[in-house]
Amino acid sequence: MHGSLINGVRFLGICKYFKHCPNPLPILQLPIYAIPLGTWVPRNGETSSRPFGMLRLTASLSSALNMLVEAKVSSIPIVDDNDSLVDIYCRSDITALANNVNEMTVHQALQWGQDSNPPYERTQRCQMCLRTDTLLKVMAQLSNPGVRRLVIVEAGSNRVEGIISLTDIFRFLLG
Predict the structure, then answer these.
(1) CA distance readout (Å), 170 to 36, 49, 139, 175
(2) CA–CA separation, 91 vs 60, rounded Å?
(3) What share of the chain is helix, strand, coil (3-state, %, to 5)?
(4) For the domain that residue 133 is a member of, what is the CATH number?
(5) Where are the beta strands (DSSP E) in the chain?
(6) Residue pLDDT, tens place only, 53-112
(7) pTM, full prediction
(8) Which residue range is the domain that position 68 belongs to?
(9) In this structure, is the dihedral angle defined by the CA atoms of residues 23, 26, 32 and 37, taken in order, positive or negative?
(10) Residue 94: partners with Cβ closer than 8 Å, 6 or more residues away
(11) CB 28 within 8 A of CB 37
(12) Taking 90 as the threshold, does the pLDDT of residue 125 lie above it?
C-alpha cells in the first residue's frame, strides 16, 4: 500500500508539471487510441494479447471473482445487454463481501456497496473517457484522488471499448 501511495504522489507531480508546461510533449496531445496503452475490446477481426472481460449485472459474484483472478486485473466493467457501461466491479468490492460471494449477483453486490458507501465515494467509482481523449486529458482525470482507472466508452452510447489504469500510464511513461 505504501508504494501505491508514493506512486500516486509522483503521478500527481507529473500531471501538475505537464498541466502548466507551455509546450507539452507532442505525445500528450495524441488521442489515447493512437498510443499502445491500456486494454481494449478487440474490434471485428482483431485479436488481443490481453483478454478483455466484461460482466452483466446478473453474473454471479463468484464468476466476477474468477474473472478478476484469471485475467489478473483489479476491476471489471459491468455492462447492460448493449455492452454499455453500468458500473465497475473491483477486487476491493469482493473483499468486502467475502462471506456471501457464492450467493450474490454482481448487481446485488454493487447495490450493497452503494448503500454502505458515502455519496461522495459512489460518484467516483466509475470514471469514463473517450478513445479520442488526449493522453494529457486522461492523465489529468487519473490524477484525481480515488481514480485508479478509466473505462473507455463510445461517445453517446457508453458502449465499453477498453480500460486504462494508472499502472498502464506508469508503464508507458517509464517503460
Answers:
(1) 13, 19, 10, 8
(2) 14
(3) 45, 20, 35
(4) 3.10.580.10
(5) 39-40, 55-56, 75-79, 85-90, 128-130, 149-153, 160-165
(6) 899 989 988 888 888 888 888 889 999 999 999 999 887 776 666 655 566 777 877 776
(7) 0.69
(8) 2-174
(9) negative
(10) 61, 64, 65, 68, 101, 109
(11) no
(12) no
Identity of the amino acid at 147:
V
> Considering only CA atoms, which of 153, 133, 132 is closest in space to residue 84?
153
Question: What SS3 state is found at 107?
Answer: helix
Measured distance CA(94)–CA(62) in Å, rounded: 9
Q: How many domains are contained in the chain?
A: 1
**By the 8 A CB rule, do 20 and 139 touch?**
no
Quick one: which of 133, 125, 138, 136 has its CA closest to 164? 138
Strand partners, 90: 75
Q: To the nearest whole percent, how much of the chain has pLDDT over 90?
A: 24
With vertex at residue 41, the alpha carbon angle to CA 92 and CA 155, rounded to the nearest 5 degrees, is 90
The C-alpha cell at 77 is: 466493467
